[in-house]
Design a protein that fits this description.
The complex is a heterodimer of chains A (138) and B (114).
Chain A: E1 2-7, H1 17-28, H2 33-52, E2 57-63, E3 67-74, H3 82-85, H4 95-99, H5 107-114, E4 117-123, E5 127-135
Antiparallel strand pairs in A: 1-2, 2-3, 3-5, 4-5
Helix pairs in contact in A: 1-2, 2-5
Chain B: H1 3-9, E1 13-16, E2 26-29, H2 33-39, E3 44-48, H3 53-62, E4 66-69, H4 77-86, E5 89-92, H5 97-106, E6 111-112
Parallel strand pairs in B: 2-3, 2-6, 3-4, 4-5
Antiparallel strand pairs in B: 1-5
Helix pairs in contact in B: 2-3
Classes of the chains: A alpha+beta (138), B alpha/beta (114).
Chain lengths: 138, 114
């Protein structure tokens, strides 16, 4: 099953709709709730990042019998120092973003925490592609 | 602790609730949603002073079934409707975060929420 979602830019009020839709789909498919939470949280963090930092983008989701593969593709400036960004608490978010409950420097670490596999491809001014894999039967 | 007991302890207004007999084992107080997603465990009540649809989205992703808005913050109808649609209970109390958490802890809600 292949799913496609557009991720709006700078619209935090509607951010997370793609992740919500994917979570509902996994519930309907009868996937283990622990596995659903891993997929939902890691996708949600990536979606929020695409909205906050990435100027919006898209989500490409593939679900098969044993796993879900989530690709979040954004149009942003890329991540200048990926190693630094993976550290808990490191953030480049503005005060405005923090006032909305995000930008605490936990987004990428949370993706790593919940995903079974995480790959991040990023280049300056070329955007970022986050690929998350969660297996259903591990 | 049942949800209706929590409402009574916090003198909270119930804004959305499909089942006030939900059993809550522990609580987490935070205005940072990524911290909630990093550390929260099961059957948790979320207390927050952040009024945003992302509070409900975070609760949805984490399977959190009840949210209390503290410090007299009242969520908009859009947030209440979103919570109702997802079966997430919503309450609002005038108590500040520290006092709300302290009252619940003193009343026996001592499970580690994180």
């Amino acid at each position: 099953m292949n799913l496609h979602y557009e991720i709006p830019s700078d619209d935090l009020a509607h951010a997370g709709e793609a992740s919500s839709s994917v979570k509902k789909m996994l519930v309907q498919l009868g996937i283990d709730p622990v596995r659903i939470k891993k997929a939902a949280v890691s996708m949600y963090e990536a979606e929020i990042n695409a909205v906050i930092h990435g100027g919006g983008g898209s989500a490409e989701v593939t679900i098969d019998s044993d796993k879900i593969v989530i690709r979040i593709i954004d149009n942003g400036p890329g991540i200048a120092d990926l190693e630094l960004a993976m550290q808990e608490g490191y953030t480049t978010a503005s005060d405005d973003i923090r006032e909305m409950g995000f930008g605490a420097g936990m987004g990428l670490p949370n993706m790593k925490r919940y995903a079974d596999e995480l790959d991040i491809q990023t280049r300056p001014d070329k955007g970022t592609i986050v690929t998350i894999v969660v297996y259903f039967h591990q | 602790m049942k949800l209706h007991e929590i409402a009574k302890i916090l003198d909270a207004e119930i804004l959305a609730c499909s089942d006030s007999d939900i059993e809550i084992m522990s609580a987490c107080g935070s205005d940072l949603m990524s911290d909630v997603m990093a550390f929260v465990k099961e059957n948790v009540l979320l207390l927050t002073g952040l009024v945003s649809p992302q509070v409900i989205r975070t609760a949805e992703m984490m399977d959190i079934r009840a949210v209390v808005f503290v410090r007299g913050k009242v969520p908009g109808q859009n947030i209440i409707d979103m919570a109702s649609e997802k079966g997430i209970a919503v309450m609002a109390t005038c108590e500040p975060m520290f006092i709300a958490c302290g009252k619940l802890y003193s009343a026996g809600l001592t499970g580690k929420g994180v």
